[in-house]
Structure formats: C-alpha cells, structure tokens
Amino acid sequence: MKIVQAKKNNGSSFKFTTKKVALNNPLVLVFGNRYMLEDVNLYTEIKQMFPNGNIVFGSTSGEILGDSVTDNSIVLTAIEFEKSSYIVKSKNVKEFNNNELDLGSQLISEFPKKDLKHIYVVSEGSTVNGSALIAGIEKEKHISIGLSGGLCGDDDRFERTLTAYNESPKEGEIVAIGFYGKTLEITSANYGGWTGFGPERIITKSKGNILYELDGKPALDLYKKYLGEKANELPKSALLYPLSVKTDEDAEPIVRTILNIDETANTMILAGDVPEGSIVQLMMSTVDDIAEGANKAAIYASRNRKNKPELTLLVSCIGRKLVMDQRTEEEVEEVLDVIGSQSKIIGYYSYGEMAPFEGDNACKLHNQTMTLTLISE
C-alpha cells in the first residue's frame, strides 16, 4: 500500500506532509471545512494532482491528519492498493424521495459480492436518517462483509453538509467505497465514554428519527427544561447533552445527538431512529472520559488483528470535540498509542458514526463515539 498525504489551509495551496510519489489508480479521500469545499476550483485542483484518481469528498466539523486536529482546512490522503482493489458508488437522497432505506439497499446491490470485504460510507449528514441508511445496506449485504463510516459535518452550524464522488462537493450525496481482496484485513470498532444522568423516560411518540413525546409530554419542552439557559443555544448546546436510547433491557444503549429542533411542531430531529417504547436518559462526559473512550475504541478495533494497520480512518463526533476543546488532540494521541506510528491516519469530526458494537458484526449508527476503521493488505 502506497500512501500520499497533503493538507491545505484556507487561502493557501496543498502542501504534502509525506513524500510525493506517483500513484496508480489511487483512492483519494478529501475531508475539509464546508466553506473551503464550496470552492468551485477545488475539484479541478485535486484532479490535476491525481489525474487517474477516484476522489471522494466529505465536509467536516474538524479535520484529522496524523496526530493533529485542525479547523478551516482540507486534509487529503491518496492510497494505491498493491494487492487489493476498490469500487466507488454514490447516490443522492433526493433521487429516492429521502427514503434512506431504499437508497441503502440500492447502493449495496450495485457492488459485486465476490471478495468484497468491507463497505466504507461517507454520507450527507445534515438531513439523512443514518439508521435507515444502515438498515438498507445491512438488509442486502452478507453478514461477513464489514460496514463502517460516518455522516459528514458542518462545524457546529448544522446548515448544510457536502459530499461527492469525482465531482464538486454537493448536498444530499451518499458515497460508498467497496474494498476487495483476499489478503485485505479491515476491522472497525467504536466507543464513547459518556455517562447517563437524571431520570429515565419512555419514548411515547416518535416517527423514525423525529422525537415527539417523552412520558406523554412534549420532548422538546422537557429537554429545554433540563438545559435551562443553554436552551437558547439549541441545537448547538444539545451536542453537550446527547440522549442514551435503549430499545429493550438487554440491548446495548445507543447514543443519539440532536441535529435540529422544530419549534413549531415542538419536536427534536435526531441523527438516527428513536423507536417508541425505548428508554431515554440524558448523558454527559468529561475530557478524561472521552480520551479513555478513544483508547478503548482503538483496543477493540485492534483486537484479533493478524497484521498492524497501514491506514487508519477515524470518525469522531463534533460533540466530543466541543467537550475537549483545546485538548481535542488527546483522543487522537490515545488512538496512536494503541495502533502504532506505522499507520497513516486521516479522519474527520462528524454528525454521526457508523460501526458495529464490540463482538457484533452488524453495523449501527452512533453519536458521540470515536470510530476506527483499520486497513492493511
């Protein structure tokens, strides 16, 4: 595997952070600030750098390259696979009338199944129901095929997110990368580090990812009551107090971030499904807990691997970044301590993360977690 990495700050050109070498048919991952991705010349600029590359874009709430976390930048990693291969497909939610379940099913059906090891998703993040998207993919793929990825971000603005495959970044795109190869080893895992507090409540009315009522009362009113003065900063302040959602007593709780609120309907729109009858509780975290969570995620992703990773894809949550603030890089350093310096790292801060729970093959949508996808040939 040959890997070339570069970074672009606002107002400057790309600067290579690794030795620049010629690559054959590289997969080019480009994660960056949404305003910078809106530059009409960006796609042409990258295409000139990698004329035979397949370019995947995703907007972020912060960029990760190596052991550093930056804002208002673009990070780029180009990968030439020497023993493996890849295929990229993309769909737009508008083509499916925002039916993410059908989109996911159609997307996975276009990948040849022979030697398919893993699907990595870079998805629109501001409007998509990530749970439904994953359910559509999981419905059609074999259990042995891995699935991970993330929902793109837009800092803490929640205005619009951009993605694309071999064209200028735009809204509504969902890009999937299929990795093939008999020697290819890909593992993924996630972990949070958040703790529940306050009373548990029952979801008495919801539809998909829209939450209407808790214990028969308007959910948004209750949530605002807990937030106090911070309710005036919604939806940004919700990133600091996500919801733990437990579908039944034996199920692993899933963390859900509030993407937006509807004052008129008195509802909350979350990144994934919140089924009726689920038990809900507010959550909070500390810097040390989040850093420890990143360490555990790296341990889980590394467990039972035969080879050390050559490439590490990180997707962490914007909520974690807001809590850690000036110490954000500590969670990336915790990951490095586990996976080793031999692996090249690229990633971004997101509106949602896709990965299986430890010991499970089925992918789930998470919020407020650190998610790793480790790749070696």
Automatic annotation (TrEMBL):
Cross-referenced SMART domains: FIST, FIST_C
* Top-level taxon: Bacteria
Could you tell me which residue ranges the FIST C-domain domain spans? 219-357
Domain annotation FIST: ranges: 25-218
Task: Tell me the InterPro entries matching this sequence.
Answer: FIST_C, FIST_domain_N
**Designated name of the protein:** Uncharacterized conserved protein, contains FIST_N domain
For this protein's source organism, the top of the classification is: Bacteria, Pseudomonadati, Bacteroidota, Flavobacteriia, Flavobacteriales
